[in-house]
Amino acid sequence: MTGTGSTPPRIRVLIVDDQPLVRRGLSLILSPDPALEVVGEAENGAHAVTLARELRPDVVVMDIRMPVLDGVGATAELATAVPGCRVLALSTFDLDEYVVGALRAGAYGFLPKDSSPEELSAAIRTVHAGEAAVAPRLLTRLISAYVRAPAGPRPTAGALGELTPREVEVWRLMATGLDNSAIAGALDISLSTVKNHITSIFDKLGVRDRAQAVIAAYESGLVTAGSRDGVATRSAST
């Protein structure tokens, strides 16, 4: 059959930023990549939702702080209006509470704006593949800075009860910033076993990816913000 083994379709990218120079710069960075196709540019979140409905991009590179409709609101609308596209959030700051909002709303990843062109291209590929594009240590710093467990009963107590003791421990280590390989080493289990536990954790918690699982860990009180550079953890035992 003709076409077998041909080059896969390019990843369609929509760029969203309220600054024209930033939009143009991102477009110039991404356009030479043969795997990517910049299909449009939007100057705010409302325009992004309109264009995404029309253009059906695979990935939306979304600035967080914008007028009219910010990146958090736009991400939430896109999750409903164009569920097939995936959002990669961009922010000027490493620690930005708006980014946590975007991750809650459904963004698949986050990059600081001072990231390299190579990091941006790699992150677009990662979110297009359905994986979270946030460095584990950066994710932990970000979420520990802005997410706190509310007073009163833990909101995920039911979910915690459904997790096995080993799954709780994997979840706790994930929330402290360890990647899968480090979790496997810490618990002396195989990488495939870690991945199986994480899949089960996502299912039982009702979360989509690592970022949302880490947010849930802080909201539940499983881990709490400790020192400026680390976390203090609660016991995983019941």
Largest sheet: 5 strands, parallel
What is the mean pLDDT?
82
- Along the chain, the helix and strand elements come as EHEHEHEHEHHHHHHHEE
| Contiguous helical run count | 11
Low-confidence spans: pLDDT under 50, at least 5 residues? Answer: 151-158, 227-238
Q: What is the global morphology?
A: globular
Global structural class: alpha/beta
Q: What fraction of the residues are assigned to beta strands by DSSP?
A: 5-15%
DSSP helix fraction: 40-55%
Arrangement of strands in the largest sheet: 2-1-3-4-5
Q: How far apart are the termini?
A: 59 Å
Radius of gyration: 19 Å
Instruction: List how many beta strands DSSP finds.
Output: 7
Overall description:
With 238 residues, the chain is an alpha/beta fold. The chain is 49% helix and 14% strand. It has a five-stranded parallel β-sheet with strand order 2-1-3-4-5, with helices on both faces. It has a two-stranded antiparallel ribbon with strand order 6-7. β6 (223-225) and β7 form a beta hairpin. α3 packs parallel to α4, α6 (136-146) packs parallel to α11 and α9 (180-187) crosses α10. The chain is globular and about 50 Å long. 40% of the residues are buried. The model is unreliable at 151-158 and 227-238 (pLDDT under 50).
Features:
238 residues, alpha/beta, two-stranded antiparallel sheet, 11 helices, 49% helix, 14% strand, globular, disordered C terminus
Gist of the model:
With 238 residues, the protein is an alpha/beta fold.
Please outline the helices and strands.
Blueprint lengths: L10 E6 L3 H11 L5 E7 L2 H11 L3 E5 L7 H11 L4 E6 L5 H9 L3 E4 L4 H12 L7 H11 L10 H6 L2 H11 L4 H8 L3 H15 L4 H11 L2 E3 L5 E3 L5
Parallel strand pairs: 1-2, 1-3, 3-4, 4-5
Antiparallel strand pairs: 6-7
Helix pairs in contact: 2-3, 3-4, 6-11, 8-10, 8-11, 9-10
